[in-house]
Amino acid sequence: MPAIIKQFFFKSHEMTLSDPRFISLSQWLSRYFSADVTPMLISGDASFRRYFRVMTAQGCFIAADSPVQLVPITPFIALSHAFAAAGLKVPKVIAADTEQGFMLLTDLGDTQLLSVLNVDNVSEYYQQALALLPQIANVVASTDPTSGEIHALAQYDEAFVRRELQIFIEWLIGEHLQLNLTVDEQALLDQSFDILVENALAQPQVGMHRDFHSRNLMLNHGDLWVIDFQDAVLGPVTYDAVSLLRDCYIRWPQAIVADLMQQHYQQALSHGFIPAQTEFSEYQRWFDLMGLQRHIKAAGIFARLHYRDHKPAYMADIPLTLSYIIDIAAAYPELAPFASWVQTRVLPAFTPLLGAQAASEDC
């Protein structure tokens, strides 16, 4: 583990009152409000950011602590302006210290979309979420808040896709399962990943959020607000839709997903994001294989969060991603051997987690 990561991890788990970054954040906020304030930790996330609620005479705010050596805040600030200009509801950056990595944001409350979803309302809420994607797709550049320079979003290119797939091999297969791949297994993974890379590159490219799902949509006064958008890139047209509809944290009945997928297909056609001659069968392959790549990446990231970042709770989300991988890959003959390999070599390691999840659902 790199020293800077290790240092921040252990500091973030100490009592906040003895945490140097917490002290610096409190001092910065007190200068801004011209009064002493005590930020209250409300959450961290899958990165190295932490979020605090700040209650003042002027109202409630959110303070973000983002160590600049690990997660610079300038991309977030730049994209918050770009997304807002596109008509999206995003947290307003009220104040920022780009050198220390502190931000003061509007408080959107605590209601993640995921917390209110059920089979009766998910279609309605997801239709609202899908309606945001054309605005996101049109964000292809942002303005640096310091220099004023306009920068095109990074490309989700072949190197990017392969780097994400490698996380699965390094952290799930290697670090967690301790599997030494045979020559045949490595060839199978190489062949399968080549198919996924080709699929990603074959799709029309648009602006994409890259983590568009029900935990990154906040419900506030009846509206959906978009958060955690700082990693936006130019990439495949189906990426954000499949991130939402095949969420890594919850699975919906296939009939619901199929209907919403059809809606996104029609939306992409009507906005000109995909060629008019694109058949639904071609779109569905794009969608399915894009989701497959994303779930492979996510399974690896969840393992990395456990072993590198000491956040073990994410391990419980791996079985769902593996079930997606097996089911979707098995539907495509060229990927069926990969599905079989995941089912026989990878999934059995998570049987205890699956059993515990089933027991919980029975209670």
Return the string of H and E elements. HHEEEHEEHHEEHHEEEEHHHHHH
**How many distinct helices?**
13
Into which percent range does the helicity of residues fall? Answer: 40-55%
Question: Low-confidence parts, pLDDT < 50 over ≥5 residues?
Answer: 1-15, 353-363
Largest sheet: 5 strands, antiparallel
* Overall morphology: globular
Q: Give the N-terminus to C-terminus distance in angstroms.
A: 39 Å
Assembly type of the chains comes to single chain
Based on helices, strands and strand pairing, what is the structural class? alpha+beta
Strand content: 5-15%
- Please list the strands of the largest sheet in the order they lie side by side: 1-2-3-5-4
Could you tell me the number of beta strands? Answer: 11
Q: Radius of gyration, Cα only, in angstroms?
A: 21 Å
Please state the average pLDDT score.
91
List keywords for this structure.
disordered N terminus; five-stranded antiparallel beta sheet; alpha+beta; 363 residues; disordered C terminus; globular; 14% strand; 13 helices; single chain
Task: Explain what you see.
The protein has 13 helices and eleven strands. The chain has 363 residues and is α+β, with helices and mostly antiparallel strands. Strands 1-2-3-5-4 form a five-stranded antiparallel β-sheet, covered by helices on one side. The radius of gyration is 21 Å and the shape is globular. The two termini are 39 Å apart.
